[in-house]
Write a structure and sequence with these properties.
The complex is a heterodimer of chains A (about 475) and B (about 210). With about 475 residues, chain A is of the alpha/beta class. Chain A has 18 helices and 19 strands. Chain A has a single domain, classed as Trimethylamine methyltransferase-like (TIM Barrel). Chain B has about 210 residues and is α/β, with parallel strands linked by helices. Chain B has 2 domains: about 80 residues, Orthogonal Bundle (Methyltransferase, Methionine Synthase (B12-binding Domains), Chain A, domain 1), CATH 1.10.1240.10; about 120 residues, 3-Layer(aba) Sandwich (Rossmann fold). In chain B, helix 7 links the parallel strand 3 and strand 4. Chain B is elongated and about 55 Å long. The model of chain B has no long low-confidence stretch (mean pLDDT about 90). Classes of the chains: A alpha/beta (about 475), B alpha/beta (about 210). The interface between A and B is medium-sized, with 26 and 23 residues.
């Protein structure tokens, strides 16, 4: 990322101030951890544990040691290292939606496992999407919906996967599914396949499932993705600075858990900051306050804790792909491009986080090219100033036949889906709007959708794990 | 006879200490406590409800008004002769269903229901169907409110309704459902009586269900 184009929302002094507050809160107020074994473990490693209230306080030296051992980068499937050396932004789909919009009919449906299959197969064909997450299928047993979703992704995309566990009981099955595809525990650890979401229950509580998810991520060598998931004014302070502080505390606590369990476990910070519609109580992702806060939380986490971060970059509070969704996404995307996240989350999302649209997924994927171009900034050098070309041009002439133009003419990106034709050409081509063009792209991609060519024994093992989960958890 | 304008203004402004002081004054003037409660406290809260619906008051402001109203109510309650039920417009048991530990939406709904005069029994989170039945038998509420944030816990709402039927309690109680992934379509499909898409409108829906 070009330094001269980066936007800093927080000064060094402000980051330091909030950083100190995080230490203060962790050492004096503490967080609640609802995990008995975890409480014993944390106590044995120097934390101050109250076994009655489950409140854990961390002395400063423990936190500082954790920050010293947490890696500053993470390697995703496909050898993608974040932060990227050139500052490239990567993209992550939305996760956990329970509705989808069928592009062929524009009708909203409850999520199905068949849609998760299609979703993964579309992602497989979209070069811009590097991390895929499953949505919440409603036509499989409820208690194993996450296990069904993950199996479907493993069968249909070779990309890195964001795993969003739904219950304590499903955790082992989720990790085992990944292990089957990896082939061995060594390979699984060497090339992590998952960003595993571990989420605080704001304010300042960690459920048994989430501590266990961190513990198992460490054991299986998968990337820990601590999320704070706060709503301003409801589950964290209403002010953005207060939200950043609480998010900082919660993510820092999860960094400490992970590094105490297994030093060197990669961690990627994810705030997931929401604003609150104060009239209705609805969570908001696309409001200006939510966008500012999300970007500032990411900036704080990266600057203060020096770990990679993912930032909401594509979502919208609108329920359809319309002017609002386009504006919110462009606004959010610009913050993503000009602040310091390593990847953007939420590709394809509508209705805040409750719905996905393949049409929007395609628009988001293509839009990422624009954000990455913007992020690359402006190169100023003798070559790009082109003094000789200007000196040598005849007044009133043109540069089209100039060698300098020929050399650089392909540097400006051309983004599919975005209309740059004249009005007459556009009319002659059917007067199609972007939604229509994206739907046509979807129809083309759909023709090429196919499952991965996995070995039969892997498919069988995956099926066995899901059958076992259905039997043990649902019956 | 007072029109309680001073109380109304203080409740709308969320001034709990002032509300207490004014209620004390009215009590000292030997105003009928039931009248004082109805006209001095409940009526202003109806105005609060209308202002919230129109977007003129925000949830934190409504909650401040409700808190002020409760501070006044605390002084009046001991003076009201008869059943406690006469103080409230209805009784609601409210909880988050099994497997779901999220509580912020439920907590906001609880406060909103209290603010319009319901007696709310908040039974907490991760409550299984059998426990809900047990609590309903024990508390005998007018409304059972079920909350879920996770798609995966929504089916427990249906289970609760089925168990209410099996226990012969279904006809005696109204069931309301809500939470981010819950929709009117889902509420209809499981046979719930009421659904509110937002915490703010839940109280109004509850009143509608009881014909208040």
């Amino acid at each position: 990322m070009s330094e001269n184009i980066r936007m800093d929302l927080l000064s060094t002094e402000e980051v330091n101030n909030i950083y100190e507050k995080c230490f203060l809160i962790l050492s004096e107020k503490g967080v609640k951890v609802d995990h008995e074994e975890g409480l014993k473990f944390l106590s044995a490693h120097g934390a101050h544990v109250d076994n009655t209230s489950h409140v854990v306080k961390f002395p400063r030296d423990i936190v500082e040691k954790a920050l010293a051992s947490v890696p500053h980068e993470a390697t995703l499937t496909g050898g993608i290292v974040i932060p990227d050396n050139s500052g490239k932004l990567y993209a992550n789909t939305e996760t956990g939606a329970n509705n989808y919009i069928d592009p062929e009919t524009n009708i909203r449906h409850s999520m199905t496992i068949e849609f998760d299959r299609l979703w993964a197969q579309l992602v497989e064909q979209l070069d811009e999407i590097s991390i895929c997450a499953y949505q919440s299928p409603t036509d499989v047993p409820t208690k194993t919906a996450d296990i069904h979703g993950l199996k479907t992704l493993l069968e249909n995309t070779s990309k890195h996967i964001m795993v969003h566990p739904y219950s304590l009981n499903s955790l082992n099955y989720l990790f085992e599914l990944g292990l089957v595809v990896a082939g061995s525990k060594e390979e699984y650890k060497k090339k992590p396949r998952f960003n595993f979401i571990c989420c605080s229950q704001a304010p300042l509580v960690f459920k048994e499932m989430d501590y266990e998810a961190i513990k198992l991520s460490c054991e299986y060598g998968q990337i820990v993705l601590p999320a704070s998931l706060t709503t301003a004014g409801a589950t964290c302070p209403v002010t953005i600075a207060g939200q950043i502080t609480q998010v900082g505390v919660e993510i820092l606590a999860m960094i400490v858990f992970s590094q105490l369990i297994e030093k060197g476990t990669p961690v990627i910070g994810n705030p997931f900051s929401f604003a609150l519609n104060m009239s209705t109580g609805r969570n908001l992702l696309g409001s200006v306050e939510a966008v500012l806060s999300e970007a500032a939380c990411c900036e704080f986490i990266k600057k203060a804790f020096n770990i990679p971060v993912g930032q909401n970059g594509f979502g919208s509070d609108s329920h359809i792909t319309d002017g609002q969704s386009t504006f919110e996404e462009a606004f959010m995307g610009l913050f993503g491009a000009f602040t310091i996240p390593d990847f953007l989350i939420g590709a394809g999302a509508l209705s805040t986080i409750l719905c996905v649209s393949p049409t929007k997924l395609i628009i988001d994927a293509k839009g990422l090219n624009i954000l990455n171009r913007a992020r690359a900034g402006i190169k100023v050098s003798e070559e790009t100033i082109a003094l000789d070309e200007i000196i040598n041009i005849q007044q009133g002439g043109h540069y089209l036949e100039n060698k300098h133009t020929l050399k650089h003419c392909r540097e400006a990106i051309r983004v599919p889906l975005f209309n740059t034709d004249t009005y007459d050409t556009w009319v002659a081509d059917g007067s199609k709007d972007m939604h229509t063009r994206a739907t046509e792209t979807y129809m083309e991609l759909k023709k090429n959708c196919k499952p991965l060519d996995l070995d039969e024994h892997i498919k069988k093992e995956l099926n066995n794990i899901v059958k076992s989960a259905d039997k043990n958890l649902s019956e | 006879m007072s029109d309680y304008r001073d109380l109304e203004e203080s409740i709308l402004n969320g001034e709990d200490e002032k509300v207490q002081a004014l209620v004390k004054e009215y009590i000292d003037q030997r105003i009928d406590p039931m009248q004082l409660m109805t006209e001095g406290l409940i009526t202003p809260m109806s105005i609060v409800g209308s202002k919230m619906k129109s977007g003129d008051m925000f949830i934190p402001e409504v909650l401040a008004s409700a808190q002020a109203m409760r501070r006044g109510l605390e002084l009046i309650k001991p003076l009201i002769v008869g059943e406690e039920s006469s103080i409230y417009i209805g009784k609601v048991v409210l909880g988050t269903v099994e497997g779901d530990l999220h509580n912020i939406g439920k907590n906001i709904v609880s406060l909103m229901l209290e603010s319009v005069g319901f007696n709310v029994i908040d039974v907490g989170e991760d409550i299984n169907a059998n426990k809900f039945i047990e609590i309903v038998k024990q508390e005998n509420p007018d409304i059972l409110g079920l909350s879920a944030l996770l798609t995966t816990t929504m089916p427990c709402m249906k289970e609760v309704i089925e168990k209410l039927k099996d226990s012969g309690l279904r006809e005696k109680i109204k069931v309301m459902v809500g939470g981010a992934p819950v929709t009117q379509e889902f509420a209809n499909s499981i046979g719930a009586d009421g659904y509110a898409s937002e915490a703010g409108s839940a109280a109004e829906k509850a009143k509608q269900l009881l014909g208040k």
